[in-house]
Design a protein that fits this description.
This protein has 13 helices and 19 strands. The protein is an alpha+beta fold and about 475 residues long. Keywords: Transferase.
């Protein structure tokens, strides 16, 4: 059996063939209930009242401590650390020496030499590897995401992590506090006491109005969550289930899962040998209608994901030289694709026909069926102009939306076609049934798609107007 990613790649036809057909269970948010009320009401709550997102279980946590902690971050991040003060957070983005995105996550600076990274595995794997091979003077503690199915076994984390979001969020926060709470600047941190437990806080605003992300020792998880739900009852607070949680990005504009550009560079062979055969990079599947035998066709630059404004050349970092050579104006741009309702109806009704093979199943409210999603986007001349990467349904907008990246010459308002479903009846992934493809009409739209988020959201984080 292969022991690491490199051994898997050495045995594969090519990286794309391996990742398109890897046999994994469907991705779910672990531990948290799928729904508490129903996903429609839960989506509407972040627009109409308030929502409690439970982020405790589905993300990796990396604790970085030591005198070289900031240097490790600076050396591996496209972001500047010049204004990265204690009690601030940043959306950390890392790239390879060739300038391809590896991943992103949120970094919290809790003390001078103490940082916490929260996010998907690729960026934290890169941080841990660089800490080891670069011999940085840091101590690193990794708290992996909770098991997808604990099978009755106890679950333990270092921290619980919750978010209160929505137009009534601040009413709930001030009720919990017993009085007014200072509305700090976006991505600034403070603290709050809830049910006798001290929680650290991050000023957030997913729905365009002030909200908080809160975290503290896992032992306080249950009593803090219960206290928040009790305080929020009069304000219409709903708990978000795991089925609802990943769909909030459809309206606010973050593409969660870019494929890390680490599979081909000869200089990264040692890194691929360091990554175990069980790593996300080795086991998480590519899905979608775009198929190329060259995995580099799936690689992305920061600009294609809306992170161009984060790139700062005020420090040396891995990949700086490559990014300095990028023609920024030629880069694809992040957009929302608003799907045609009639075409979506064709997908649903094909399930009810006993004639022929139906279209690829569109799951509600999140339709992604792989970890790294790439659906071809075609213009009127059948030219492939980009990728649709994160697809689902918004009960608030009453339509299917996908987040993607497309050529800069395709203007907002254009009609394009998203090719839904994989070619040749589908790959061998466990999440794929036999199906046929459908060209779904879609309108190229702004990101964020939500008018509330677009007009009121803090610029820089998902709008990518300024750096944070």
């Amino acid at each position: 059996m292969p022991a690491n990613l490199q051994q898997i790649l050495d045995a594969a036809v090519n990286p794309v063939d391996h990742l398109r057909n890897v046999q994994n269970d469907a991705y779910i948010v672990p531990v948290v209930s799928s729904e508490f009320s129903n996903w429609r009401l839960e989506q509407q709550a972040w627009r109409e009242s308030a929502i409690l997102f439970d982020q405790t279980h589905h993300m990796d946590t990396l604790l970085i401590r030591g005198k070289d902690a900031l240097k490790l971050i600076s050396d591996t991040a496209v972001n500047s650390v010049a204004n990265f003060e204690v009690n601030r957070a940043k959306q950390y983005v890392s790239v390879t020496e060739q300038g391809w995105v590896i991943g992103d996550g949120i970094l919290f600076r809790e003390e001078d030499d103490e940082f916490v990274y929260i996010g998907r595995p690729p960026a934290q794997n890169w941080l841990r590897y660089q800490a080891e091979v670069g011999r940085y003077d840091v101590d690193i503690e990794l708290d992996r995401r909770s098991p997808t199915n604990p099978m009755g076994q106890p679950v333990d984390r270092v921290h619980w992590r919750l978010q209160i979001q929505g137009p009534r969020a601040w009413d709930i926060i001030e009720k919990l506090n017993g009085g007014p709470v200072e509305k700090l600047k976006f991505f600034h941190m403070s603290s709050l006491t809830i049910a006798g437990a001290k929680a650290r806080t991050l000023r957030h605003g997913m729905s365009g109005v002030p909200g908080l992300e809160l975290w503290g020792p896992y032992k306080d998880y249950v009593k803090v969550r219960e206290a928040i739900m009790a305080a929020g009852e009069e304000f219409g607070l709903r708990a978000s289930g795991g089925r609802t949680y990943p769909t909030n990005t459809l309206e606010s504009g973050w593409i969660p899962d870019p494929l890390p550009g680490i599979y081909t560079d000869p200089d990264l062979r040692a890194y691929r040998e360091w990554l175990p055969a069980t790593s996300a990079e080795a086991r998480n599947a590519i899905a979608g209608s775009f198929v190329s035998s060259n995995i580099e066709d799936y690689y992305l630059t920061p600009w294609e994901l809306g992170y161009g404004s984060f790139v700062k050349f005020d420090h040396d970092f891995i990949g700086r030289s490559a990014l300095e050579r990028v023609d920024v104006e030629a880069q694809r741009k992040k957009v929302t694709l608003a799907w045609n309702t009639e075409d979506l109806g064709k997908i649903f009704t094909s399930m009810l026909s006993d004639e022929g093979t139906g279209y690829k199943y569109f799951d509600l409210p999140l339709a992604n069926y792989g970890y790294f999603n790439f659906d071809s986007v075609l213009d009127g001349d059948d030219r492939n102009v980009g990728f649709s990467m994160w697809t689902g349904f918004s009960a608030n907008e009453r339509r299917a939306l996908s987040l993607g990246t497309i050529n800069p010459d395709v203007p907002i308002g254009s009609e394009v076609r998203v090719i839904w479903g994989e070619p040749d009846g589908g790959s061998r992934k466990a999440t794929v049934e036999r199906h046929q493809q459908l060209a779904v009409r879609a309108i190229v739209s702004p990101v964020p798609y939500s008018v509330v988020a677009r007009e009121e959201y803090q610029t820089g984080w998902r709008t990518a107007a300024v750096s944070v």
